[in-house]
Amino acid sequence: MDTTDQTAGGRSFGKGLGLRKSLMTLAASVMLATSAQAATPATAEVNTTGLAVTDDTVTVGILHSITGTMALSEIGSVQAEKLAIDQINASGGVLGRQIEYVQEDGASDWPTFAEKSRKLLRQDNVAAIFGAWTSASRKAILPVIEQYNGMLYYPTFYEGLEQSPNVVYTGQEATQQILAGIDWAVENKGAKTFYLLGSDYIWPRTSNKIARKHIDKLGLKVVGEEYYPLGHTQFNSVINKIKLRKPDVIFASVVGGSNVAFYKQMKAAGVDFTDEKPLLLTISVTEDEIRGIGGENVEGIYASMKYFQSLDNPNNKEFVAAFKEAYGDDMVIGDVTQAAYLGPWLWKAAVEKAGSFDIDKIREEFAGIEFTKAPEGYVRIHENHHLWSKTRIGKAQTDGQYKVVYETEELMEPDPFPEGYQ
Amino acid sequence: MFDGYTSSELMSIFAMQGFAGLSLFSVFVLMAMGLAIIFGQMGVINMAHGEFMILGAYTTYLTSGFFQSYLPGLFGGYFLIAMLLAFLVCAALGALIEWLMIRHLYHRPLDTLLATWGLSLIMQQAYRSIFGAREVGVELPDWMMGAFQVTDLVELPINGLFVMIIALSIAVGVYLLMYRSGYGKKVRAVVQNRPMAEAVGINSAGIDRATFALGCGIAGIAGAAFTMIGSTGPSSGQAYIVDTFLVVVFGGAQSLIGTIVSAFGISQAQSTMEFFLSGSMAKVLTLLVVVGILMLRPEGLMALKVRR
């Protein structure tokens, strides 16, 4: 696999695109030398802390698992980040500098994430890291990135309860995904009883805690709450329990291979989700997961996300077209992939607003930075480093796509430490 | 927890829960049969067992794709051919691996653990490079989806029944092969006393290779069957390996009957507890009971008396 030379060789830039990119860089710098010298600020001014910035390039890091269990989920993020970087370069780069990247492999192993982030910060002096996927890998990077004062752009929807000055969270924290989803089920589907089901680790447990508090506040009832070990493949017992308790809504946060088993067995047990008895609302199945589960097995389930590939707006049409052109027509784009795409663009906006690559100066500027070309429509960075974004409900179709049936009118405020929900 | 339910509702739920336990039992039997042969009869700790299962699953995936493109009319029956192919592919790879690697390690059982674990990593990464890191969806013919409606509330999943039938056939097949055929007699002779078996003219190296290949082939069939109920991805095999070893070790490594008894015990305990407790708790309790029993009976439930 050609990915290995990137990890082993340390500093090889961008696979096949590398040559084209360096030619473009060359061309750009020739042009800059003649005409636009004044537009590009001097390196000494924009980089006072020794980051890998030259007169015409700036180096960033990409740190995801491209081997191991998590590769399944993280490869989409890598693709989106590279696409964003290529597009930024094609439109002139950041502060007149072309972006180059060093890609490292976290190998689905949390200590490796810590080690590789240290390498990116200390040895490659990257100006930003786009990376991590699971909360465990983010927690592994956290002390390193805080110690060396780097900046991580983290794409996954996650459980909240964190706010680091050295991380920008481009996915939703839990309340942004859950509250609007439950409200929607209550208001539009008349849901009264809920069954909470998840894989057994921090994200589903925290999410269900928030969900339960919210359901209690609405005066409605949770009739069951269950967790199964990661990788669990036998859901017959819980399916029987669900049939016995007859909840209006199954609120599901099952992840990974378990997802496939769960939906296939629900279908086999004669549950037809299109009947909406019970209605299934998930916060963990994106278009990416459906590819593994099979569209025919999830037809009729609802998902609460901020992004669906089918979103009907000009930004998204452009994004989907560009993504498919770069990686092939059969690609699907899930919520996290879109959030990963936001990372490089938000970084560019912050750098340009600050007029500097220095981490400390960028940090001052985060609050209020907008990205109007976001595929999800529009996002803005909150002062707590999370994004204001809308929550949307999609209904799964047999072709593996979601049809958007609802979206919040306002942007949802990110609230990583929700009061009354802990 | 049963307040407010009619007795017919309760009866139906218990019936379906019984079925859930039986279907978990057949899954365990399928998983464990191949390993019971390799681990039990040959003493090789095959950590790559799960990856062989996934090879069977990918074979099914490819077969289903082939039928969809070239023989759409016969799609309804592709699954049987896929299982046969899965067996052949896995058995062939198993024989190759035995020749390349395992046969050099028969006298070093702990090294086979490391070597086959390495093999499992290699196989996982190979799947990732060939099929991509994403899980693939294996499409099933329509007749295998859905459920039998027995009464209003009792529905039996067809694929669950199908897995049961496969598990039963394989268990019977393995029994006949091991206890009613010339080959089985030779295998048992080699297991009980290798030098004596060789002395009476049994080609023990050939028996070893065939046995390893057979175990891998059965893993392949299991993998093919599991595309109906689980996921097919590069690391999906990892989900099965712990349960598989648990069943085989608990049953008594050298006894095939023991494997079946232990699969039955563990699956019934687990599915009953899953119904009354939460999923994770049921797993913890099951493991605790197994650990407790193994402390009292280190040889497993059904220890074979072997002269050492």
Automatic annotation (TrEMBL), chain B:
Q: Which GO terms describe its cellular component?
A: plasma membrane
Q: What domain of life does the UniProt record list for this protein's source? A: Bacteria
Give the location in the cell.
Answer: Cell inner membrane
What's in the keyword line of the UniProt record?
A: Amino-acid transport, Cell membrane, Membrane, Transmembrane, Transmembrane helix, Transport
Q: Enumerate the transmembrane spans.
A: 20-40, 52-71, 77-97, 158-178, 212-233, 239-263, 275-296
Please name the Pfam families in this protein's record: BPD_transp_2
GO MF annotations in UniProt: transmembrane transporter activity
| Keyword Transmembrane set for record | yes
GO BP field: amino acid transport
What InterPro entries is this protein classified in? ABC_transp_permease, ABC_UrtB_bac, BCAA_transport_permease
Q: How does it sit in the membrane?
A: Multi-pass membrane protein
Q: Mainly resides where?
A: membrane
| Family statement | Belongs to the binding-protein-dependent transport system permease family. LivHM subfamily.
- This chain belongs to the protein called Branched-chain amino acid ABC transporter permease
